[in-house]
């Protein structure tokens, strides 16, 4: 499985997890310039930008550890563009959802992961 296929599979699992928690999915793979936000959702009157990290196991570290400052900066840039484009005037949040692809029930949802 290549990197894109792993990412797509992880995002598929993530969408199911988020929907089970009551999220409304607004966008998937939102792009702005060279930045991408995996999932944008709405939950409890919050606009939430979700970075999905998926691996086949957590043996060599957790997927969320791969969200570095450069990635965060790109997510923030794309989020700012999206907020402006839809004229969002309410609260926002940035989450990270890490998923074990061999056992999607083994996932870790970090709410308010960064600002």
What are the key terms here?
globular, five-stranded mixed beta sheet, 31% helix, 36% strand, 115 residues, alpha+beta, Trna Endonuclease, Chain: A, domain 1
Describe the model.
A five-stranded mixed sheet has the order 1-2-3-4-5. The protein contains two helices and five strands; from the N terminus they run αβββαββ. 31% of the residues lie in helices and 36% in strands. The protein is α+β, with helices and mostly antiparallel strands. It has a single domain, classed as Trna Endonuclease, Chain: A, domain 1 (3-Layer(aba) Sandwich), CATH 3.40.1350.10.
Query: Order of strands side by side in the largest beta sheet?
Result: 1-2-3-4-5
Number of domains: 1
Largest sheet: 5 strands, mixed
Strand content range: 35-45%
Order of helices and strands: HEEEHEE
Shape: globular
Q: Uncertain regions: pLDDT < 50 for 5+ in a row? A: none
The total of helices stands at 2
For the record, the CATH architecture stands as 3-Layer(aba) Sandwich
| Termini Cα gap | 32 Å
Strand-pairing-aware structural class: alpha+beta
Portion of residues in helices?
25-40%
Average pLDDT for all residues:
90
Q: From the alpha-carbon coordinates, what is the Rg to the nearest angstrom? A: 14 Å
Classify the fold: give the CATH topology: Trna Endonuclease, Chain: A, domain 1
Q: How many distinct beta strands?
A: 5
Report the top-level CATH class.
Alpha Beta
